[in-house]
Amino acid sequence: MGQSTKIQEASPKEPKEKAGLLKKVWLFVKAQAKKFDNAVDGAASFFFKNYGKTRFMIAMSKKAQYLGLERLFEKGPKAFAYFFLFYLVRDTILYIIIPIYFAKWTSGN
Questions:
Q1: In whole angstroms, what is the distance from residue 104 CA to residue 86 CA?
Q2: What is the pTM of this model?
Q3: Residue 6 covered by a domain
Q4: 103 and 63, same domain (yes or no)
Q5: Mean pLDDT across the chain
């Protein structure tokens, strides 16, 4: 009982080196993403901040809210059709296709 046990300590350099490497990789990826976003005039960050909606979709959503769908259709049937097709494609990808592939990927089948 009189013996004291020593707990072996991990080298303090290993976690710092891994954290430093991950931080450098993250900073590089972040810088490249900002560079791309600047090249496309902020369109990439806008797209992600607004859950995949384009400026056109946001403008049409606002018009649909204050005009109503029937009056919006009467103002421009072509824009109305594009608006719903964009939403249909976006929502199909976000809420149907991605979850199916994610479920398949995580189930191991």
A1: 26
A2: 0.47
A3: no
A4: yes
A5: 80
